[in-house]
Amino acid sequence: MNASELQKIADWLIDGARSAASPSHMMAETCERLVQAGLPLWRVGVFVRTLHPDIYGRNFIWRPGAEVEVGTVDFNVLDRPEFQASPLAIVFTEGSEVRGRVGDPGSDRFPIVADMRAEGVTDYVALPLVFTDGSIHASSWTTKQPGGFSDVQLNALRSLVRPLARLVEIINLQRTSALLLDTYVGNRAGARILGGQIRRGHTDSMHAAIWLSDLRGFTALSDRLPAETMVDILNGYFDCQVSSIRNHGGEVLKFMGDGLLAVFPIDEYVGDIQQVCGSVLEAARESRASVEAMQYPVGEAVERFRFGVALHVGRILYGNIGGGNRLDFTCIGPAVNLAARLEKIAGKLGRTVVASAGFAGICAGGWADLGEFPIAGFSRAERVYGLVDEAPAA
């Protein structure tokens, strides 16, 4: 084991592993450097818990001559017998080192040791990665060297996990920041905020298709159903829309009670306005079908739901708006205001999907002229269009 090479690797990690372009590259280069320094590694894993509503953690697995495998696990992993019987469960709960060398007393209590013995692995060591906030993450190291890791090699790994933990923590914090921003403000807004657009007044103009929807009868539902039930209903209702919006290139900017505001950016240089509006309409049709199929049992009855969505296209102002040190990343402008007014008209007409003349003109075909309506706050009336295949609700 080359001590000077090991120190170079530690220094490289402390300096941010600058030659590695991504976490996967950092993992691969770290392991390859360790092998070159004399560590007989076979399989290495890094397991990091995350702050995410659906994902418990991420794992990175390295093997010689193969691409680093990157995966995620959900919160159900904590209840799975294979996890509860693994050395990693001990590392996460106790923060202690766990070793499973083939032939050592007690090593067979870990199923993973028996599995790896079949691959020719002779030693398995799980080491905690302790972050500065005290949270415990994990790494695992295996070898096929006869007799397992030597004491010198084990000590080298123990010394290396400290700088590795610092770098992994920084990478994890950066990713957590991006994930949380994506979760709460959307990926486009999150990228801008992380890029430094954080001062009030930092705004951009964007040409976009606008989606504004709400749940019909929300106030009456809220009056007769428990608040906890309404939260569950709203989550299911928003699920009916969000996946379709995102799959068709849109970004959800805001949930407002039962309302949802989304935008579909239009690249004017590419000239994809017809394609974008067609995708928006397809997302609206998918959402309509999903909401119509949605059922929620309440006692002996089953609640059914309807929603309305207004589609418009225009230029919006997109960026930081707020007061003092409390900002919101949102969009404003006459186009957004018109979409909001159209959504109210959709409710009065008993329609699910309505569009402005601008949107219907771009996404031509399949529209019925519903008439011209005065729009509060606007100097002239607006012609409103509904889908031909949709009969107005009573």
Automatic annotation (TrEMBL):
Q: Which Pfam families does the UniProt record give?
A: Guanylate_cyc (PF00211)
Q: Which InterPro entries match?
A: A/G_cyclase (IPR001054), Adenylyl/Guanylyl_Cyclase_3/4 (IPR050697), Nucleotide_cyclase (IPR029787)
PROSITE patterns the record matches: GUANYLATE_CYCLASE_2
Any stretches that span the bilayer, and where are they? none
Ranges for domain Guanylate cyclase come to: 209-343
Name a biological process GO annotation: cAMP biosynthetic process
Query: What superkingdom heads the lineage?
Result: Bacteria
One GO molecular-function entry: adenylate cyclase activity
What is this protein's name?
A: Adenylate/guanylate cyclase domain-containing protein
Q: Which organism is it from?
A: Bradyrhizobium sediminis
